[in-house]
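user: can you give me the structure for this one chain? tokens are fine.
assistant: on it. calling the predictor now.
[tool input]
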Amino acid sequence: MSTEVDIAPPQSLRHLKSVAAVALMVAAGIVSGGLFSRVHAHQELTSWTDAQAVPTVATVLPEPSPASQALVLPGHLAAYINAPIYARVSGYLHAWYADIGTHVKAGQLLGLIDTPDLDQQLQQANADLQNSIANEKLAATTAKRWTEMLKQDSVSQQEADEKTSDLIAKQATVEANQANVRRLEALESFKRLTAPFDGVVTARKTDVGALINAGSGSGPELFTVSDASQLRVYVSVPQSDAASIKPGMHATLTVPERPGMTFDAKLVDTDQSISPASGTMLVQLAVDNKQGMLFPGEYTEVHLAMPGDANALFVPASALIFRAHGMQVAVAGADHKVQLRDVTIGTDLGTRVEITEGLKAGERVIDNPPDSLTNGDVVRLAATEATSVANPSHDAERAHG
């Protein structure tokens, strides 16, 4: 009996080993590929996160200050001459001859006052004057007669001197009575209320039969006459601009009721002082008003051409950073690193501000900077190049008040 042993051929074992090795290598490749892709993805995520951590900012170039700027200030118009007319004598208004709006000439009659008491006083004064003149003539004749008698030693020197002194007293009485008559005649002339200059009657505060009390500013005026052919313009200029105000400067005026129209004015003078209450200097301008298009007392906007500050720069108001220790702007350097600058604001124009200190021309100012921005932070500049600050003509006007 024979025993048979079935032994696998060695080629099959080697084939299995090869397959196992290949499978192991494939598995290792898959594992290493997964690890590599995860590492690569992590690196990409890290790079993307770092890139996102760097803020992208837009920059603007500061705009230099123009050679001249229009300073806009509120003002009010006043008549060049304005005279309230008061009564100098008491009585009743007999008649008035000029109402409000009447154009009058110097010396033109405005009203007439009846003064019966004053008329009687003048008559009495004239009578006293005539009596004193008669007494003075008698005293003169007597003194002359006694002087002749003294030459003949018919009277004493004492008696002659008494007659001469009486003549002198009577002459003084005549002069006093004459002065009293002239005073009352002067008061009589005030019965006629006349215009002191060419102008317009802007107020009439009396009527026929009204009781008139003599006064000089204590009671209501009877008439008001204004010369509005030329007007005064009063403007309060801030202290910061007071040094630039010079007599002879030209300005333009606008009034709300005449849109689109401007009026030329000339700076006449200033009060040469700063008001402690408002910190402003009062400026007076003159404007021609022969056409009568402007009215005394109305509001006006005054546009003054002020010299610009060569060192001042304009940036958007959105570029300002408000910090506890003061106002700042962020500047992007050539290395894209942030520099925070302390700045001084000259004038706030709303959308733009004037920087007088802390900034140089040509520097890239970051617009709308993040609140977390600090010195040395790296930023990414927006794809667009830095633009200049918009400078519309109306923005260049500095408005106060």
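assistant: here you go. The domain at 56-68+310-399 is CATH 2.40.420.20 (conserved putative lor/sdh protein from methanococcus maripaludis s2 fold). The chain has four helices and 24 strands.
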